[in-house]
Amino acid sequence: MKTIRDFNIQDKKVLIRCDFNVPMQDGKIIDDTRIKGAMETIQYAISHQAKVILLSHLGKVKEESDKEGKTLAPVAKRLEQLLQQKVIFVDACVGKKVEDAVNQLKAKEILLLENTRFEDLDGKKESGNDPSLAQFWASLGDVFINDAFGTMHRAHASNVGISKLLPSGIGFLVEKEIERLHTVFCPKKPFIVILGGAKVKDKIGVIEKFAPKCDRILIGGGMAFPFLEAEGYFMGSSMKEEDSLDFCKKMLKKYKDKIILPVDLAVSKEWKDGSPAYKDITKLEIDDMGLDIGPQTIQIFKNQLQDAKTVLWNGPMGAYELSSYQKGTQELLTYLASKKEQIRTIIGGGDTVACAMKNHLEKELYHLSTGGGATLNYLESETLVGLKAVEQSNANH
């Protein structure tokens, strides 16, 4: 796989697809982790005298009103602060304004184009990988570098489309993601998988892939309920997932000794913050809603992790949106961080990464992935459509 290092980029126009899909509130960036993640590749390009053109999406844009609050202008300002140099921002991503800005670009200068998803208003051209849109973007550069791991599982015009038309490689963020995630395909044992989040059906591929290879699977979050129901427990008003029951029964039958489920839950009568009541899984009432794993389960899970050498974790242990139900996720993350010399912990994106960052544990864990969906996809298939496009480009150019 070619990386940015494999190209002579001096005085060349280098298109870099970044993932600046950052959380925003009232036009302000709440979390700049993804912007910081792109720094190494951008700085490498500048230091090698490239003319740098940055592309990214921000959120979903389905109708004109969706453009409100989805401009990348605040990202340009934050990039300027981090890079300590001017970032030219164009409030368009196609057309003469873009071409003029690119033509005026000098070596070591940076240009950020507007949100690529704005082109979805014209017949989903970006997310539908429209060839004419990809052709326009490709015409702006000499080399294409895909450093947006979070969108590598999607065939968009700004990643797969451009890769087909230009000599292409990956950036340092994507390189690190692939290298670290690859650890779980030949893990040091004992190898333990922790799965949480809302639904079993989102993780079927990962369960089927890793159940035969891992030593244990610890299941929490909404995922635990259909497994517990499959074992005959009554889950009150907890999240239902009837269409996954047969799959859960099949997995429990096949991997009975590997699958570890909660024995107690933090419950509430309604979906809101408050003081959790802790109940044994045998004692849930009709209006009890499970919103986190309970203290006994936390201890059981810690015991199961005691001798681990490799841990793969995807999805929180509770309703992480509610601050009262973050305890299970926080305690297990803190425990794994305390054993960083022994355990390589790989966190697969989303709320679990947010929790690690909030608790300042990012340096204590082996890898925090920047892409939830892309991570799951890569773990299931050991490749991604964006990676395949880069490999294909290597063969063609």
The helicity comes to 25-40%
Strand content: 15-25%
Tell me the overall shape. elongated
Query: How many angstroms separate the termini?
Result: 13 Å
CATH topology of the largest domain: Rossmann fold
CATH superfamily of the largest domain: Phosphoglycerate kinase, N-terminal domain
Multimeric organization: single chain
**Do you know the CATH architecture of the largest domain?**
3-Layer(aba) Sandwich
What class would the helix/strand composition place it in?
Answer: alpha/beta
- Show unreliable segments: none
Query: In the CATH hierarchy, what is the class of the largest domain?
Result: Alpha Beta
Query: Mind summarizing the main beta sheet?
Result: 6 strands, parallel
Strands in their spatial order, largest beta sheet? 5-6-4-1-7-8
Counted by DSSP, the helix tally is 15
Q: What is the C-alpha radius of gyration, as a whole number of Å?
A: 23 Å
The total number of structural domains is 2
Number of strands: 17
- The overall average pLDDT, rounded, is 95
Describe the structure.
The chain has 397 residues and is of the alpha/beta class. 48% of the residues are buried. Helix 9 packs across helix 10 (245-254) and helix 11 (295-305) runs parallel beside helix 12. Helices cover 34% and strands 16% of the residues. The strands form four sheets. Strands 5-6-4-1-7-8 form a six-stranded parallel sheet, with helices on both faces. It has a six-stranded parallel sheet with strand order 11-10-9-15-16-17, with helices on both faces. It contains 15 helices and 17 strands. It has helices spanning 33-37, 39-47, 73-83, 96-103, 131-138, 157-163, 172-181, 204-210, 224-230, 245-254, 295-305, 327-338, 350-358, 372-381, 385-396; strands spanning 13-17, 24-25, 28-29, 51-55, 87-90, 110-113, 143-146, 168-170, 191-195, 216-219, 259-260, 264-268, 277-280, 289-293, 310-314, 344-347, 367-368. The protein has two domains: 4-170 and 384-396, Phosphoglycerate kinase, N-terminal domain (Rossmann fold), CATH 3.40.50.1260; 179-365, Rossmann fold, CATH 3.40.50.
